Amino acid sequence: MLILECPCCGVLADETELAPGGEAHLKRFGPGASDDEFEGYLFMRENPRGVHFERWRHVNGCGKWFHAARDTSTLEVFGTYPAQTTEPPRDIRDRISARRPGWTWREFA
Amino acid sequence: MSEAVSALNGQSFVGIVKIEEAGPQGMITLRGDAGAAALQKAARDVAGVDMPGIRGIAAAGDRAIAWMSPDEWLILLPHAQAHEGVATLRTALAGTHHLAENVSDARALFRVTGEPARLREVLAKLAPADLHPDRFGTGEMRRTRLAQVPAAIWLDSAGEARVICFRSVASYVFDLLSVAAAPGSEVGFFDA
Ligand SMILES: [Zn+2]
Fold it and tell me: What is one process in the GO biological process aspect for this record (chain A) (predicted)?
């Protein structure tokens, strides 16, 4: 069972109180983008066994979106952080480095 | 004005705790910037109590304000005064970014009374929330789910809980609470 602390209301929310929102930190490409950029934005997703960054919504709770960093195979949670964040925060990345030396995810490490 | 009728007309059930649909209850959804002085003052003027902090519920007499999210509060007041309450908020907040809406008839309210430990376990059978006395007490508004529908629960006192859900699922929630309170279904998890 996955339990995430919602950074908006502070509740330790059981997975069944949350709705998954897919991969975090996607960069939107719209009109004027190249076909490759648009394809990447629409379809290309990370699917790691290990460190992953995701969006979640506290749907049966405060209703807010937030980000979570976790390990997809062990369900270890490295931290949650606000939705208004465009890349994994330094403190979360440091925490992951301490637990998973040498990890990478997209352009982050 | 037509006579307000609550979702289940005061239906009740007695098992290891008592479940009662609480009848018409005034409820106003208020949204806006938590830091705005005008918003805080308007809410206090209508509810007679200061806006509570994160996950709090503050009550005074027959009125209360509950924290619902970082930019949303639920004001509880007598049903007959909800309409006027909304008008007061809108007048006070004209020009301030906000939303005030009377949601009284879109919701159902239940009163769950009984022995404190029984009451916690009836709710804990249905919600994925930690309802241990060390983690959940009076003064906290906990939004969660009861089985398959969203709900908000709080403790008025150790022996009385309140449950709010959408009106359209009121009979579902009443049935859930009644089954969870079936005679002989004591678990004893919260017994000291
Ligand atoms: Zn939340």
Answer: tetrahydrofolate metabolic process
DSSP string, B97-146: -EEEEE-GGGEEEEEEES-HHHHHHHHHTT-SS---TTT--TTB-EEEEE
Query: Which phi and psi angles does A21 have, rounded to 5°?
Result: -120, 15
The CATH number for A3-99, chosen from 3.40.120.10, 3.30.70.660, 1.20.1560.10, 3.30.2270.10, is: 3.30.2270.10
Using one digit for the tens of pLDDT, what is the confidence trace for B107-165? 999 999 999 999 999 999 999 999 999 999 999 999 999 999 999 999 999 999 999 99
Handedness of CA B170, B175, B176, B182 (dihedral sign): positive
> Using the beta-carbon criterion (under 8 Å), do A9 and B54 form an inter-chain contact?
yes
Residue with tokens 């006192």: B157
For tokens 């007499």, name the residue: B61
The fold for domain B26-105 equals: Alpha-Beta Plaits (3.30.70)
Q: Are B185 and B16 in contact (CB under 8 A)?
A: yes
Pairing status of strand A77-82 against strand A65-71: antiparallel
Q: What is the pLDDT along chain A (109 residues), one digit of tens a residue?
A: 899 999 999 999 999 999 999 999 999 999 999 999 999 999 999 999 999 999 999 999 999 999 999 999 999 999 999 999 999 999 999 999 999 999 999 999 9
CB contact under 8 A, B128 and A62: no
